[in-house]
Design brief:
By secondary structure, the protein is an alpha+beta fold. It has ten helices and seven strands. The strands form two sheets. It has a five-stranded antiparallel β-sheet. A two-stranded antiparallel sheet has the order 6-7. Strand 4 and strand 5 form a beta hairpin.
Length: about 290
């Protein structure tokens, strides 16, 4: 919340930064606190705005808190620089700021509707800390996720751009051997797989839009395809007769699973989902002899 004379525009010498401490349910009230020394800080006018009372009332409560020995001013009061823009002028002032201990103490002394809402909010935060071990700051989490997503995508683009340069260089006469080009192909395939898995680990993987439909091969057609693959691999010395040997009716069952429906709708409605689950079931259900994954 911007409180006029106490608007905060720049960080002070202690490295403080502005962060939203509290926002009312209707969004009408938002208090931006200073964060420094592992706590948050508010000015008297901000405390008054937070609790919906006048500054003198808050000042009286603060004096009583210190007078009673409930808190010590040396540990909870600090002067920080604030910035106010008046037309073309920038005015800097040193204002007293009170830390979270004072904020909570005042909040439980003030008698106002806003103070009551603050106490309900504060109690909920404390309860969440106790029951979950942590409190999720929605706005900060969204900012961190966006920053993380942006940084990852930037790194991914740089990696892909570098890979494109390597591919281009490998096509020249300097690297004309099959082994050189083969190495580049391996790196290219690995890079794409790495980026895919990394996006999944970071929670940044977005499900692509699939092409509706897709027709599964019959069991005979699928067996013919496996046989053709076996022949190709054997010709290159990369497989033997054990490759693609079925175990019972597992392969037939896998193909049948992909034709299932749920409430009259296909369980796997797109070409991509059928292909992905075919791979998944072939790995998970062991329809072929061990060593064939």
């Amino acid at each position: 919340m911007n409180t006029g004379a106490d608007a905060m525009g720049t960080d002070d010498s202690r490295g403080a930064m502005a962060e939203v401490l509290y926002q009312s349910a209707d969004g009408a009230l938002e208090i931006a606190a200073r964060i420094a020394d592992d706590t948050v800080w508010l000015t008297l006018p901000q405390l008054a705005a937070l609790f919906g009372v006048q500054v003198p009332a808050v000042s009286k409560h603060v004096r009583n808190i210190y007078a009673s020995g409930e808190l010590q001013s040396e540990a909870t009061l600090s002067k920080m620089e604030t910035v106010r823009h008046e037309g073309s002028r920038t005015v800097r002032r040193m204002l007293e700021h009170y830390n979270l201990d004072v904020i909570i103490s005042v909040g439980y002394r003030v008698n106002s509707a806003q103070a009551t809402r603050f106490r309900i909010w504060a109690t909920g935060v404390l309860k969440e800390h106790l029951t979950r071990g942590t409190t999720v700051h929605v706005r900060r989490l969204e900012q961190l996720q966006q920053t993380q997503r942006t940084r990852f995508e930037q790194n991914a683009r740089e990696l892909e751009a570098t890979l494109a340069l390597v591919r281009k260089a490998s096509s020249r006469e300097v690297l004309s051997g099959d082994e050189g080009r083969g190495l580049v192909d391996v790196i290219a395939r690995y890079t794409q797989t790495f980026l895919l898995l990394q996006r999944y680990d970071e929670g940044l993987l977005i499900e692509p839009h699939g092409e509706p439909g897709g027709t599964m091969p019959t069991l005979a057609e699928a067996r013919a395809l496996v046989g053709a693959l076996r022949a190709q691999l054997m010709a290159r010395g990369e497989a033997g007769q054990m490759f693609g040997q079925e175990r019972g009716d597992g392969f037939a069952g896998t193909l049948g699973n992909l034709e299932q429906s749920v409430f009259g709708e296909p369980a796997y409605p797109t070409l991509e989902s059928k292909a992905a689950h075919l791979l998944y079931f072939v790995i998970k259900n062991h329809p072929f002899g061990d060593g064939n994954k």
